[in-house]
Amino acid sequence: MKIPVSELIVKYMEMLGIEYIFGMPGAHILPVYDSLYQSSVKSVLAKHEQGAAFMACGCARASGKISACITTAGPGATNLVTGIANAYADRQPILVITGETSTHIFGKGGLQESSGEGGSIDQDELFKSITRYRKVVERTDYLANVLNQASRVLLSANSGPVLLSLPFNVQKELVDEDILDRVVTQRPDPGASENIRSIDALTGLILEARNPVIVAGYGCIKSGAQQQVSELSDSLNIPVTSSMKGKGVISEQSALSLGSLGVTSTGYAYKYIVDNADAIIFLGAGFNERTSYLWDETLLKNKRIAQVDSNPEQIDKVFKADVAVTGDIKSTLNGVLKTLDAQGVDRQAVRKQIAVNDPVAKRDAGNSKIFKSGFALIESFYKRLEQHFPQDLVVFDDNLIFAQSFFNVSSGNRFYPNSGVSSLGHAIPAAIGARFAEQKPTIAILGDGGFQMCCMELMTAVNYELPITVVMFNNSTMGLIRKNQCQSYEQRYIDCDFENPDYALLARSFGIGYQRVEQETDLDRMFADTDFSAGINLVEVMLDKDAFPNYNSLRN
């Protein structure tokens, strides 16, 4: 049966299991929008294309599935760039659909043309470094191959954004629907390439160590390996620290949790590793600048290293591992646990139970070194948050520094820091995208500077009656910039301070709930009165602009 290319693309998205596509229509992409009209793929109208890209990222992170965004040619596509760069850095499986002018006017100066011909914007070059695969589909005879190439990236363990740009006339061309019979849309078995020898070597390194430590990264969450990490930790008494993105791999209230490892953390995990560990097992952790304390050699000195990662590009990228396993983390750890059982290892007898008295209190004691004064209200907010939501909470947080030290994430909650390219204006649209995927209380946490870059997307939540709570820390400044200008530039403050609107009136104009928190007693009222499950809310938490965390700045 002959169908338009626009309909074929929509059916392809259905086959990939895409449930939502976020974006804004324009003339050059309307054929695809028309094909979405009766599709199971639900379109979501954002207020800005960057917000649409962040929504797709949030949806993908929360669901673990492929998500999508869609825009028209020219400015529609260019507005996506920051969000797609974020997805590229985070290796999120995002299918990007953009329109384009008809092929017969390429190079003639068509409205919003971005073919790269005749002096027009070259969209292909623009997205070259932030997509894993991209194609301007100028013909239909290679369409099956193009879609298979897209699937290969989107379904891989190391996925990333895929861009398909569809000229207006190509969208309307008729093609055989059975093209889709030649397109693979099933994810490969992650355990199919399990390397038994590597698993044996990893198991041996763990058993030979007197005091190993696990560094758990986002790869554990992406693989769904939380249970396996917890079982390995509990049964062999191995302490676990996490990267920022790995918070919650095991419950941070656990006696075996060292908390988060990183420049802006309490430093407890760093000290424990330096003073005690003789082996470190990296599980899906990239050991980036924040986590590694600017690649401090002391962390790894005189220690055996094991690394497990599904991405071969991460293996030995920063350090040389004694044992390296390229493969799915969940499958690999299942292999280790089976090997231990097959060898008859009495797991609890491997090493003595680690004596940790009130580990959470020990970790929190380090906060006084980083947050000397002015942050009691922020600390209390995070403590109340973890008490109020022991499980089933989804948090997107742009204020990474506070959460890394103050927020002990349970294994029943999901914490998504603003990683990727760390763009301001991320948390609200990302949380909205996640709320489409998961029907759980969802909170976006960000500063007032970031809020003003994306607050219009709150109306997207209102338009779709999507419960979400935004917690905004208000200090009337770009906090990190002011900190650096205070500590490194002799208090020469420039372009960091600004005036804020009346947020109570702003919330009223959106038709959403509002709470203002100025002191700790306000937190009781806020948590009692805020409907986190069914309401749309803005919570404004006041913060002194001259209260600065005390940590070494990252390299310039």
Write up this protein.
- The chain is α/β, with parallel strands linked by helices and 556 residues long.
- It has 3 domains: 2-182, Rossmann fold, CATH 3.40.50; 196-357, TPP-binding domain (Rossmann fold, 3-Layer(aba) Sandwich), CATH 3.40.50; 366-542, Rossmann fold (3-Layer(aba) Sandwich), CATH 3.40.50.970.
- The protein is 37% helix and 17% strand.
- It has 23 helices and 20 strands.
- The strands form 4 sheets. A 6-stranded parallel sheet has the order 3-2-4-5-7-6, with helices on both faces.
- Strand 19, helix 23 and strand 20 (536-542) form a beta-alpha-beta unit.
- The protein is globular, with a radius of gyration of 25 Å.
- The N and C termini lie far apart (58 Å).
- The mean pLDDT is 90.
Indicate the overall shape.
globular
Into which percent range does the helicity of residues fall? 25-40%
Name the beta content range. 15-25%
Mean pLDDT across residues = 90
Number of strands: 20
Structural class per helix/strand content? alpha/beta
C-alpha termini separation: 58 Å
CATH-wise, what's the superfamily of the largest domain?
Thiamin diphosphate (ThDP)-binding fold, Pyr/PP domains
**The CATH topology of the largest domain, please?**
Rossmann fold
Rg, please? 25 Å
Strand adjacency order, main sheet: 3-2-4-5-7-6
How many domains would you count in the coordinates?
A: 3
Task: Tell me which CATH architecture of the largest domain applies here.
Answer: 3-Layer(aba) Sandwich
Largest sheet: 6 strands, parallel
Stretches where pLDDT is under 50 for at least 5 consecutive residues are: none
Instruction: Give the C-level CATH assignment of the largest domain.
Output: Alpha Beta
Q: In DSSP terms, counting alpha (H) and pi (I) runs of 4 or more, how many helices?
A: 23
